[in-house]
User: What shape does this take?
Amino acid sequence: MKTVGVIGLGLIGGSMAIDLKRRGFASTVLGVEQDPVAAEAALTIGLVDKVVDLPECVKEADIIIVAVPVGTAVKMVPAILDMVGEISLKDKIVIDVCSTKEQICKAVKYHPRRRRFVSTHPMAGTEYSGPWAAQPGLFDGRACIFANAEESAPKAVKVIEEMYDVLNMRPLYMNAEQHDLHTAYVSHISHVTSFALALTVLDKEKDEKHIFDLASGGFSSTVRLAKSNPDMWVPILSQNRDNVLRVMDTYIEKMKEFRNAVDQYDEETLRQLILEANRIKKIIR
Assistant: This one.
């Protein structure tokens, strides 16, 4: 059993803390949280055993989980690796759980302690944030991406594989560039379109007061992601700019095809577009 330090006690960090302790992987969970209200909440609801500052977390923890927005993580991970070198020669492991990988892997590529860092992305989450959003079982049955694992020490990778196995996640391995491209298609564009749809409906609601009275479950599920925290998503979209722009351009082209078909009363083209989209049923059930 290990001492695990979690930096950032939000949805992902808090949910990891819950299950790593409950399932016996961690004997002690230390938390680092800048927001005093969130820190107090994390203690009150039992996400962590103790809230500490960053140096104490790095000193005491065997595994240090960086669960902060990616813009902060890119600067924080190299600094933590510096601290690991200064504090101890013990085989501490540092991981991140961010939604983009290329920039963070570049930031540590030539760091002397690079092999003590394992870059991961547990593919799970909800639209909610903060320690109040943390929940047990969040990761069960989901995939976890290991990015550029060949740059990490094999022993470190093995320990983190075991950690994610405790969380009931299945590992996938790819390079950072592939990861960022794939997540632009399966995650980032979903958030952008949800934000855009929510803005469209909110704009119309200024004139049409009954739109939300008519909203069904389909609308609610489509705009669910629009509730996501901008502090998390602004740096994700900025860091994955090129891939996100490429996906947005493709999405806009498809929207134009639908618009043209509707404009021309072209029911056959509409039918073909919908049937083609239905093929997603073979992939996602």
Observations:
- The chain has two domains: 2-175, 179-282.
- The radius of gyration is 21 Å.
